[in-house]
Amino acid sequence: MSVIEQNHAQTLDLYVSGMSCQGCVRNVRKQLESLDEHVEVTGYPKEDRLVVITHLPLAQIEQAIHSAGYEYKGLNRAVNAEQIPTRTYHVTGMSCQGCVRNVRREVEALDEFAEVIGWPSDNQLIVTSTLSQDDIKKAVTEAGYQFQGESEPTKETAENVDNSKSVSDEFTEQSVEPDKKVKQLNDTPLQSESVQLSLSGITCAGCVNTIQQALDTVSGVDNAEVNFASRTAQISGSAALENLINAVTNAGYGAEVIEDPAEAQEKRAQKEQQEYQQKVRFSIAGLMVGVPLMLWGLLGGSMQVATMRDQLIWGAVGVISAMVMFYSGRHYYQSAWRAFKHRHSNMDTLIAMGTGAAWLYSMAVVFAPDWLPNNARHLYFEASTMILGLINLGQALEVRARGKTSAALKRLLDLRPQSATVIRNGHEQTIDIANIQIDDLIRVKSGEKLPVDGIVTEGASSINESMLTGEPVPIEKGEGDEVSAGTINGNGSLIYRATKVGGDTLLAQIITMVGKAQNSKPPISRLADQVSSVFVPSVMIISIVAALAWLNFGPSPVAVNMLVAAVSVLIIACPCALGLATPISTMIGVGKAAEYGGLIRNGDALQKASEITTIILDKTGTITEGKPVVTSVDNQHESETLIKSVVEGLEMGANHPLAQALLAYAQDHGEPKQTVEDFESVTGQGVKGVIGGVSYLLGNEALMQDHKIDLPQDAKHSVGSIVYLANSEHLVATFVIEDKIKSSAKTAIDYLHREGITVIMLTGDNDATAKAVAEAVGIDHYQANMRPQDKLDYVKALQNKSEVVGMMGDGINDAPALAQADVGFAMGNGTDVAMESADITLIGHDLANIAKVISISRATLNNIKQNLWGAFGYNSLGIPLAAGVLFPFTGWLLSPVVAGAAMSLSSITVVLNANRLRLFKPKQSSNYNAERDQ
């Protein structure tokens, strides 16, 4: 809701009973939004409070609450929004909407009902709140920006407010249309949170489907993804944690919150080790009984009951088998019983039914042999015990292989040291890294890991950042340089000031992002999920149909053949292979990408990256180093001192690489800093403002053309970025800025070409510069003088031609195109907005990482397809064979023991095939020979 809309709305603090969680609040919000699309609703269920900002009369609000299923008790307090002052403040240092969000958090910490919007380009912040100016100043300062006092809104800002344009994203008003393909930069729902649960009791893909359905029914859940491989669930939305855990528990499984990824990883490793040892013991017990019984039969021993003596001997064997089944298979039977009580089924249901049926039939033969003809008195005790032994053995091997899938995440977690040496009050002390505070001074000795992010204040050393960026060459760091947690100090000693601690460090964000991505599902998994949801019931039906077919059409001994076919169908069916086919490969692929400096946001991005046909690259900071310098200045009419003074005033606080180059040139001009009035940032063109009563423009050719400034023709053909300085009447100066091309650019682009990917460069720079850079790195297609809207339109045009477009940029003007692209790539050193728009973030400065990530994503999707084909193929062939389709032609019927071995082998095969990805190494050098068959 805009500020103008608020000034005609009422804020109502309502007393509403019956709400128990944020899902209840969402129910009320939906009812109210059907009446007023601009309504704002904030709920506090524990306090029975609902705060509503709306134009609606109270009677309609009461009716909406009642329709949602809750009871309106009356007003707590009612105030008109006009009584809450809205003030405009001049704040410098903000460069994007990420900065505005930082300020908003500080203001809301003082007044939870405050409304904060901002225009960084105008250095303006609009606050609707009862807070005093001193409180606002404190909040702005705490956020790290400069509070200059109250001011009048600029004409442009006032127009933006009057037109009720979105202020949540600086770029929505320029280019982002309500197209379903456009990923909005700030689409997180109000009060939305993400929580990760560790799950227990999961045995197959059917369990995953059951938990998925249980979570989806919880009020307030926006999205839930259950991962079979990691035994976790990632849930986003406003649902109460207690409700989520209860939903899982009521479905027959266990759940607990994952608060510390490192601790969760350690617990998971311990559980997997315990599970492995337990499965091995169960397997040994089952095989110790099953193997001798099977050998007895193979070597000619009788497996039938003919005499009383046979009954006694085989009765004892049956009791021993039951004891082994209870020991080795108890967890299967318990899981099957829980599933039955909750009216669903899983893989354990099939195992329990298959082994149980074989044992019960055998015991019936022992105690009532006369009920069956002589040729039907065969015993299957060896089948029950052997099946359990083989399945436990297969699952033990699966657990061991599955544990390796999280190796990449474990390596990231291991980068964090446990303690650090801080300097407080002039004394050094060793403390736990959890106790490090911002602005603490930290000493790092040779060979030690850095505990948090910060800025070097003393000393110099080389820092090994390969664990984060994939770049093997150590980086020299000195005073004023930024350093990151998890990197390793070289031979020197450093003292640095902590700037980001805990979950705010780059390493912590990488760990969080990798963990979430590993638990997400690419679209290719949907078919497997759909099949898994009906797999077990379908197999049970097939088993019954097979038994009936043998009963009606099978040869003698009918009862034995019925049992063998039905049990074999139940045992050979393997939903685990389907359930593991996608998540195992996804976990390894995302982790492998992180090793090479690529942070993949989710499974959708992973799959789309593998399908890319066209890559669009920005020039500055992407193909070039992003560290341009002014190489020449053509002074038209004014003194160099004045030019430097004006440039410094206009570009002060800007963070674009070209602006930084101009600021470096403008230093030491000897004049006092100029005061800039009516400052405006024109995205994709430059800046303008009034200094000393004179209007100045500083930017590219497009900005000059918009203001009818004549430009010299020779400047347009310079090989370098051209920036013009003009006043309202004529050109003042022309700057030529050159930026070194990254050493990895040509190699990376050659690799992309070899992969059949079209590479296009879009830049706001002039044609001569664009052509020179394109030729230097081997790009055939480029477009110069591109504004943000032009880049966005270009991406849409390619998509209309059925191209799958990847876009890579690191600037604010790239954000709209990044959001529109099928896959948006951003450099980790780019702006907050570019990174928020991206599907994949590349840590470091190496352009080759984009080629590596695409290579890894393609290998991962190929691996997933292999797993899915294998899982579907195995079940499609195995189940009919177990049912006996070949018997009429060969006289051969599959043994339940062989079915059990095949079932175990199918899961192991999928896991081992997925683990091949761990050996994958993308290559993009001139002797290119990447392992494309992975």
UniProtKB/TrEMBL annotation:
Membership in a protein family: Belongs to the cation transport ATPase (P-type) (TC 3.A.3) family. Type IB subfamily.
Domain of life: Bacteria
GO biological process: copper ion export; copper ion homeostasis
NCBIfam families, A to Z: ATPase-IB1_Cu, ATPase-IB2_Cd, ATPase-IB_hvy, ATPase_P-type
Record-linked PROSITE patterns: ATPASE_E1_E2, COF_2, HMA_1, HMA_2
MF annotations from Gene Ontology: ATP binding; ATP hydrolysis activity; copper ion binding; P-type divalent copper transporter activity; P-type monovalent copper transporter activity
Cellular location(s): Cell membrane
InterPro entries reported in the protein's UniProt record: ATPase_P-typ_cyto_dom_N, ATPase_P-typ_P_site, ATPase_P-typ_TM_dom_sf, ATPase_P-typ_transduc_dom_A_sf, ATPase_P-type_domA, HAD-like_sf, HAD_sf, Heavy-metal-associated_CS
Gene behind the chain: cadA
Reaction(s) the record says it catalyses: Cu(+)(in) + ATP + H2O = Cu(+)(out) + ADP + phosphate + H(+)
Topology with respect to the bilayer: Multi-pass membrane protein
Keyword Endoplasmic reticulum: no
Spans traversing the lipid bilayer: 280-299, 311-329, 350-372, 378-397, 534-553, 559-582, 868-887, 893-914
Keyword line: ATP-binding, Cell membrane, Copper, Copper transport, Ion transport, Magnesium, Membrane, Metal-binding, Nucleotide-binding, Phosphoprotein, Repeat, Translocase, Transmembrane, Transmembrane helix, Transport
Region (Disordered) location: 147-177
Annotated ranges, domain HMA: 10-73, 85-148, 193-256
Record-given protein name: Copper-exporting P-type ATPase
Gene3D superfamilies: 3.30.70.100, Calcium-transporting ATPase, cytoplasmic domain N, Calcium-transporting ATPase, cytoplasmic transduction domain A, HAD superfamily/HAD-like
An annotated GO cellular component: plasma membrane
EC number(s) given by UniProt: 7.2.2.8
SUPFAM superfamilies the record matches: Calcium ATPase, transduction domain A (SSF81653), Calcium ATPase, transmembrane domain M (SSF81665), HAD-like (SSF56784), HMA, heavy metal-associated domain (SSF55008)
